[in-house]
Amino acid sequence: MIRTRRTLHWAAAMTALALAAAGCNLVGTGSDVAPTGAGVTITVALVPDPPGAGAFYREQFDAFQAANPGITVKVIENPSDQQLSAIELMFQQGSPPDVFRAQDNGMDRMLERGWVAPLDTYVTEEFIGRFPEGSMEPATSGLHRDGALMSLPLVWGDWSALRVFIYNQAILKKNGFDGPPKTWSELETMATAITKNGGGKTFGYSPGAATAPAVEMLANTAVPYSITAQGIDFRTGKAATADPGLVEAVELHRRMQAADVMMPGWESWDGSRAFTEFAAGNLAMYANAPWNVAEIRKLNPEIQMGVTTIPVPDSGRGAYTALPQSFGPLWGMSAKSKHPQEAWKVMDFLSSKKFHEAYYKTFGTFTALEDAWKEQASKNPDQKALLDVAEQTLRRAPNPKLADEGGRAILTAREAKPELRHIEAAVAAIVGDKPFLPVAKDLDKKIETLIDQTIAASDGKASRKDITFAGWDPLKPYSPEQ
Amino acid sequence: MTTTQSRGGTVAASSAPPPARGGTTVHRPPLLPRLRKHWWSYVFLIPMILLFGAFTVWPMIASWWYAFFDWDGVGAATDWVGLGNFTEVLGNEMFWQAFWNSFLFSVVAICVEMPLALLFAILLNNHRLRGRDLYRLALFLPVVATTAVVGIVFAVLFDPAGGVVNDTLTGLGLIDRPINFLGSTTTALPTLMGIDLWKGFGITLIYWLAALQTVPKEIYEASRIDGANSGQQLRYVTLPMLTPIAIVILLLVFQRSLNTFDLVQATTQGGPVRSTDVVPTYIYRYAFDPFIQAPRYGFACAAGVVFGLLTLVITLMQAPLLRHRYKAGAA
């Protein structure tokens, strides 16, 4: 009896220790084991965006695996809001991905930590030749840092920068309008009339989402993009949130909000709500990114949708939509990868014409390899309209981040303080029906102080010159030689 | 000799009555023999202790430590800023706005949800009420509903353009124009509080129902023999007997409501114009906002520590009153 009891005690103790060990393993690093067969496993951390991307990537990597025996691709999907934190956590835990998605500023964030591998040793002339001519120049590609290629793109450079005005032709016609508004006052007049006639079911206009992105989109037809993006006018190197063009864009929305012209509820909308309402025929007009067009067509194939340029100020256009770089960085290769050759094969695959053709076919997105979609896009009315708007409204613009270290330091410091950007103040002015100008002036003071502090702390590496491009005319294409 | 029986068998045996507070010293066996006697019980505790240490104690201590650094969450924290983060938190208007909103969530939970749940618990505790289990289930269902789904459903219901609630109110002629429940700075917070109340109501109800089971039936019978009616039973039997447990429920509800996060994040993300921002969403933004160049984990930790201390202070402020009520109830 005693022996049995002792045995039970030992069994209990061992079970407890096993459980404890299992618990400890929860916070340990663990190890990646190839799901199938032997060989090398390459971990790819991505975002299942747009909808359906999870299945798409798996299908594509299955095809890759079939063509590359011995390489298994393990996909880790992170939600878009947490993607950067999730990747950082993977690096911290000692199990970094070999290939990861970290677009735009996210790539710089990873770069600062020393986690991004330069790709120059892998790329060949054939590889560079896949991209549009001149787009991979280190000074303007957007993928290079200090002359080294650090990232690869997914989408067409113009696609990232492009903003379009989407309107419902049937609703406009029903309200007696032949075409879309060309100016801000036309937009206000038409939106007011449509909402008034809509009887609470159809609305003339919406600023797009809770952060009112349309304010920035409209303002970018009036002021240099740097004012809406950074609060700084790159022509002078000074803070300029209080620029009359941006102030008027906010005031236009404030007036429409106060007059109940805009579709109610936008204050809590996410990014998908505008196209959903538009596709349902509840919203007549809004400005947004080009991917909205494909989503609307998916939801409502029969909708009479028009795509055109964003209305400009009554006094005329003051700026074109800026194209500060050829591409937005997206795919990065880990500097900690134990299998860089195999990781590069995956990177190479993600920049192959086959992959880009499949991506365009599945999502309707214009990708970085123009050959993969341009011919077909010109035959599709929706996509042709997007190409036309891109042709009409996009112009090269200076990018201090690409120009030198000082510019990068100043802009990175500004971006670390998102509260200094106009967005929150603009929404507060619109929702609270308060004037924007005093808040904008206050923001400018804070931005000026931040610039001065950053320059003072840079040991001479940064100066106002790094963010000043006196010869730049936002109505004309910019070249780095200017 | 008295022996206490439990489901597990005899767990304690003593020939002496329990010592009075501040009374004579009781001689207990030395620690080591006691540990040796129950060593296998402690072995069973090891996994729990390890997990509790790793996932509760360590993060808490670490957050206090990191609060003194300007740290972005990567690598070792080396940039010591002393009390800099705390000064910034305490001087940040948006933090106090978020704290006030969190506090309001607690006020509503304590002043509205608790009494209402008690009322329902008393009704549902009535054995003569037919279908009471069904009502209990219906009231508890929101507790197990996923908050993200709840957020989406309520956003659709409260939509000012075509939402059921607005359509109904307009149709009945109760309002002239739709109410922008989640999009207005004046209505968004009360709306979220209402949803939070609805979602948390079931769990408070369960607390009260459990508390009501602790009131001995004999006391009700005695009071009935003494001629007490239902109202008098409630006033002189039920409520005084519930007081000690009510204090525990109050603290639980206070803590839960003060930490409201998922509902706000799923519906308004603190907007519009931070009118629904609560401290957990404020902290989340500084630690995980994908739009900032580098996360400010150190600052977020400081905000968490300040919030924890403020919560502690508010809880301690209730202590004298609660102690008094506890003694009164226990007596």
Distance between the termini of chain A: 94 Å
Please describe the biggest sheet of chain A, giving its number of strands, its sense, and whether it closes into a barrel: 4 strands, mixed
Describe the oligomeric state of these chains in a short phrase. heterodimer
- Output the CATH homologous superfamily of the largest domain in chain A: Periplasmic binding protein-like II
Question: How many angstroms separate the termini of chain B?
Answer: 27 Å
- Number of helical elements of chain A: 21
Structural account:
- The complex is a heterodimer of chains A (482) and B (331).
- Chain A has 21 helices and 14 strands.
- Chain A folds into 2 domains: 40-160 and 328-395, 3-Layer(aba) Sandwich (D-Maltodextrin-Binding Protein, domain 2); 162-324 and 399-482, Periplasmic binding protein-like II (D-Maltodextrin-Binding Protein, domain 2).
- Chain A is globular.
- Mean pLDDT of chain A is 90; it is low at 15-37.
- Chain A is 45% helix and 11% strand.
- In chain A, the strands form 5 sheets. In chain A, strands 2-1-3-13 form a 4-stranded mixed sheet, sandwiched between helices. A 4-stranded mixed sheet of chain A has the order 7-10-6-11.
- Chain B is mainly α.
- Chain B has a single domain, classed as MetI-like (MetI-like fold, Orthogonal Bundle).
- Chain B has a two-stranded antiparallel ribbon.
- Chain B starts with a strand and ends with a helix.
- The model of chain B is unreliable at 1-22 (pLDDT under 50).
- Classes of the chains: A alpha/beta (482), B mainly alpha (331).
- The A-B interface holds A 9, 12-13, 16-17, 19-20, 23-24, 26-27, 80-85, 88, 91-92, 105-106, 108-109, 112-113, 200-201, 203, 210, 260, 263-268, 277, 282, 412, 415-416, 418, 424, 427-428, 431-432 and B 40, 43-44, 46-47, 50-51, 54, 73-75, 155, 159-162, 177-178, 180, 182-185, 188, 267-269, 271-274, 288-295.
